[in-house]
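Hi support team,

I submitted a single chain yesterday and got back a structure, but I'm not sure I'm reading the token output correctly. Could someone confirm the output below corresponds to the sequence I sent? I've pasted both exactly as they appear in my results page.

Thanks,
R.
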Amino acid sequence: MRNLTVKLEDNTFVVREETARYGLIIFDQNNLEATIHTRHKVLQVIQGADKNMVLTENGTHLFTFAFDHVWGGAELVSNGVDTGLDIKGRWFKPGTRLTDAQDEDMVVAVKSGNGLTVSVLHEDTDDTLVMATIYYHLYASAGKMRAVMMGV
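Hi R., thanks for writing in. Yes, this is the structure output for that exact sequence:
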């Protein structure tokens, strides 16, 4: 298991693994769209025509966060096909979770103090999915999270 921390520094969410920078998330002024830097990639989250958010790399569609407007959370959909991966909360458990097709937790992001603690439970989870989970957690709680992390 890997543990990451997320802190807001100069309007940028900085993700660290111990002392090394793991990634960055920079939101637009509306807290919707964002640029995500992983260790090896630069990704963009843009709003799609259907109001769902779309993750791209160099203009190539990776997947869509297909929002469940009734229960909350999102399915990750690629080329119109459900990948089996979901980002969601769990009843009576804190945080936002990336789950696999068997509904097992892969990544858990939980508010901690004025930041987040992120546990990557499956060592082989791609950086893109880890950062997408963090993005979704921040996006879903954008107003509250940014206010708390900025000390407002």
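A quick pointer for reading it: Residues 64 and 77 are 5 Å apart (CA to CA). Let us know if anything else looks off.

Best,
Support desk
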